[in-house]
Amino acid sequence: MSSDECQQIPRLKASKIRNHRSKISLEKEEARERRRNSVELQNTFFLDMQSTYMRQPNYFNGLPADWRFNLEIVQQPIRARACGYGNKDYRSISPPIFIKLTVFNSSGPVNIENVDSQFFQLHASLHDLDSANCTTVWVKSSNPQHSQEKVLNLIGCRSEICHIYTDEHGIKGLWFIYANLGVRTENDYFLRFQLFYLGWEGFLNMGSSPIKELASIDSAKFKVFRNKQFPGVVECSQLTKCFAKQGANIPLRSEPEKVKNTSSEYEIVETNDTSDVEKSSSSSHKEKDRKGKYNSYSIENLIHRN
Questions:
Q1: What is the pLDDT of residue 8?
Q2: Sorted alphabetically, which InterPro entries does this protein's record hold (predicted)?
Q3: What angle do CA 241, 244, 248 make, to 5 degrees?
């Protein structure tokens, strides 16, 4: 092999490397372009769908214009134990709050099978009974080290989606279940629930079109107690047990009897201790609270954006 040929070998390798890198760069750019085109196509299609339904007189926000919405609080909040400013001692409002949604049109109640329930969301806010001011968002911390910080007073999942459940009488309905709300500070409060529809004919409305309140309702007054003054949680209702059997995430109080698994056999142990249930429900609350953050904050952002 001549000296000229030997000198050309590194040049050929460098040329192949440059060509390979150029090819990879071109492929990446083409992939990015395809993704951009796909996103633009989806956005265009979504906007076209919106324009189509906006031109139709019988539709408003993706829903029939003659639909009316009624909220009924079937199970009201009664009392709660103040959670304080830590995150370890989490206690829910008792009993769980059950709100029924009924949809009407000009002919009467709409069959729930004709209602796309997945995009209905109910948003809860906390109000001071004395001043009727909204106290959901911020209260000042009593900790001197965090005196300038503000924390959420109403904690838990403040936005819940609609579910189809059967009540204790065997009647199907559209339900919102709040079993994961807690309050940090003691006082007399009431809750306000606002209904929103986040869909648009099967699509999720990310704020590109107005999201308006469809209905609202206020709960009865309930009291938040200090730890030592709290009289205890309310006994589970038949409706609570009915929803829990259908898969609703509702922590239930322990029964007077429970089965204890020993090394030799199962034995019945008489107990009224609810500490195990409370601990498990507390960990369940923490997990659901983490999962519910996106849900609550997303609906709040969409509402305030509009």
A1: 57
A2: Velvet, Velvet_dom, Velvet_dom_sf
A3: 150
